[in-house]
Amino acid sequence: MTAVAKPAGTDAARPSLWGRFAGSRFLVKLTFGILILGVWEIGVRNFAAPFVARPLRVAEVFPTVIADLTYWEATWSTLWAVIIGLAIAMVLGTLIGLLMGRVKIADRMLDFYVNGFYAMPMIAALPLLTVWFGYSEEARLATVVFAALFSVVINVSDGARSVPREHLEVAAAYRANRRSVWFDITLMSALPYLIAGVRLAAGRALVGAVLAEIFASIEGQGMYILANARGLQQNEAVVGVLMLAAFGLSFDALMNAVLRKWFPWYRRDEGRGK
Q: What is the SS3 assignment for 164?
């Protein structure tokens, strides 16, 4: 019987079991998540008070929380404030960012304040916002706008500054009107920056809404989490936190789906990043 020789380098080219595992992002994330949950469960069981949240108890109460109409009323109240506030921040942030990116005097006047407010912790602005708007849903909306606005402004202004000079020279040569220069050229060139700013702003908007609800005792996810934590129902509170994270991830996934479908440049950039 004649032995068939293997091609040189076949064994070396075949990845090991560890190599296949390390190359799978899903398996790595899943394993790390299971490890964290295991350490959390064992640690609480052995070293913490009985009311402290742990994964198995969170899983037990999860269906009860999800079936609770009060929970969904609180959730919708928060998400609606985030949607409206983010929309306002997108419009205002885009206009201010375009102005800063294309008009030097506006950039010199506003840059210091925009960066300063962006760096300010949201919790520091809450006392002022509640004084101006009261302990009301308007204060929550103002907090969401404040939290989201400056991410959009900074990104759009950077995008407006990055418009190729050749584009502006061609527009001038063809005597394009100001509207075309501002929106058809500058805004379209800044669109990737705007999208990046909105993705950052969405997370900050959600955090801002929850902080405002806790600080001003406004009905919503923040108050739901706080009330359960104070009532030693920490497992229910953790469900609320996990659902907030799920909403954030869902928004990011939705953004990715829209970008892949409608913006070819996003698919190209994503392909280069892999």
A: coil
Tell if the pTM clears 0.85, that is, is over it.
Answer: no
Q: Count the helices and strands in the chain (H runs, E runs).
A: 14, 0
H/E/C letters for each residue in 200-259?
A: HHHHHHHHHHHHHHHHHCCCCHHHHHHHHHHCCCHHHHHHHHHHHHHHHHHHHHHHHHHH
Distance, in Å, from the CA atom of 265 to the CA atom of 262, rounded to the nearest integer, reads 9
Q: Under 8 Å CB-to-CB from 82, ≥6 apart: which residues?
A: 144, 202, 205, 206, 209
Domain range 55-273, CATH class: mainly alpha
Which two three-digit tokens encode residue 38? 């295991």
d(CA 244, CA 213): 14
Tokens of 273: 């990043």
pLDDT means over runs of 10, the chain (274 residues)? 53 58 70 86 83 86 90 92 95 93 90 92 88 89 94 92 74 69 76 89 93 90 90 88 90 83 64 52
SS3 107: helix
Domain ranges of the chain: 10-47, 55-273
